[in-house]
Automatic annotation (TrEMBL), chain A:
It comes from the Bacteria. It is found in: Cell outer membrane. PANTHER family: LIPOPROTEIN YIAD-RELATED (PTHR30329:SF21), STATOR ELEMENT OF FLAGELLAR MOTOR COMPLEX (PTHR30329). PROSITE patterns: OMPA_2. Keywords: Cell outer membrane, Membrane, Signal. This is OmpA family protein. Residues 236-352 form the OmpA-like domain. Residues 1-21 form the signal peptide. GO terms for cellular component: cell outer membrane. InterPro entries: Bact_OuterMem_StrucFunc, OMP_bac, OmpA-like, OmpA-like_sf.
From TrEMBL, chain B:
Residues 18-60 are annotated as: Disordered. Residues 1-19 form the signal peptide. It comes from Phycicoccus endophyticus. Keywords: Signal. Residues 31-56 have a biased composition (Low complexity). PROSITE patterns: PROKAR_LIPOPROTEIN. This is Lipoprotein.
Amino acid sequence: MRTVSAVLAAAALVAGGPAHAATAPPLPEVEGVPVLGQAWVGNVTDDRLAVLTVHGLRRVDGGTVLYYSMGLRVQDQRGDAAHFDAYGNGNNYVLNQGGAVSLVCTAAAIDPEHDVAYSALRLDSSRRCISTKNIDFTAGADELGKAVVGYTVLAPVPTDVSTVDVLIGSQLVQGVPVEDGLLEPAVEDPAPAVGTGWPTVETSAVAEAVAPEKAVFDLRAQVEDVAKKLTEATRGGVKELDLDATVLFATDEASLTSTAGSVIREAAAEITEAGTRGTITVTGHTDSNASEAYNLDLSKRRAAAVAAALKRRLPGSISIRRVGKGESEPIASNETARGRALNRRVTITLPQ
Amino acid sequence: MTRRLAALTAAALATIALTGCSDDPDTPEPTGSGSVSVTSGDDSATASPTSSPSPSLEDRSAELLEGAAPLTEIARTRAAKGSSFAGSTFTFYQLTRSDASTLLVWRVSGGKGSSSPSDANVRRWENYPVMVADAKEYSVVTFDKEVDGWSALSNPILRITSGSAAPPQSALYPPLPAGTSSVTLTSPWFADVEVPVTEAATAAG
């Protein structure tokens, strides 16, 4: 997900460019306890916030174990038990493969650099994931200020990924290192207090995970250069340039407008400057207005028009493949005007 | 082979291996230690357990909870009249960049309350706030949920209660260039607002 602009900005810094932004407050140092990131987690039923802490992301055979804790500060206690599985925003849709509905099952290691997220492995159709049980993830009414440790087993993170962002408890935590092996000592307490050991992970269950491939999600990121009318996107590790069809073509037309030339010139420059070799793919996309057949034909004609214009501006060593996808691959909702505009595009995919 | 396909292949191989030896008493014990050394800003992979003796096991909850940096307001703006947040206030607490991503954290308060603010829909990612900096627009990162299509990598609230602040929400964005000191957030949800940027914290050494 590193953008060209980010690289250029970093280079400018080395050359004495703008000063660094302020740094976020440091994480607490706790003897014997790794503290890799923290966030505040709410609860839809009351206004108290719990402290979420990520303690480890550890590779095991067939999976990755996320260790985290949650706790209410003493001053936030009201003499009642804290059921941490009920915390979060009540939304278990994000990066959850479906079925496993719980805070402890809505978790993921996010690799923004390669545009992939590794979420909780699911065990069976009874909506279980391999994790601390909801009923155990609790601090009792007589346990004021206790932070309890839980775990969730995620899909395996590749060995060449060293740092990820983490989703847990409805919150995101940046820059968590991925390391090897379980945290020790493991203890019998299914949700021990922070500092008293780590929960015993049910590693034997990893082999029983159902459809582990569904726990891995592709990500897409986009940065639009407003002046160039060019959007640089990465999707599942593949770099793309999105050209706004509204700028390139009149409605229902496949002939390039007078303003299209500058956009295609900028795109050609980006492709060349990226050191591209081999075959690029030019793909036409439409929104869902009109019939599928009409949109498919329109997208093919638009891809051909852009490919022809690009070819004149690219080195002969780069070949172009043209594809029309019609309305079949939207990137946004067709139910909103903004979404339909995003879907009307011509995408240039660069070879990996 | 895409990154995702490679990961899936690895997962399948690991599953096969585990299935084949699940009853094997010689399966090696996993390695690791509670006394892991955490190094500030260390990007190196697979840190090894340290050889130093483990500290005594005792409840460290207080140090952890009291040491957490409080949520501190960095910007606020009013909800747009035409949005389902109308009447609410958006308060921003965190906009931190790393070399891999940018994280935005905010809360919504006030308004009439809503059991389901329709604008807080991850499947309408195009309505999520856009970060504008140096003539570039950074959109929220999306994830592909197969049949459902692309959705925002964010966890929206499902309920706003009148008179109280909703739980914190966060969303992930592409990395801002190093040195970016502020961005303008623009969205159909609220009036444009300038938000300062901080560098992400790293684990203590």
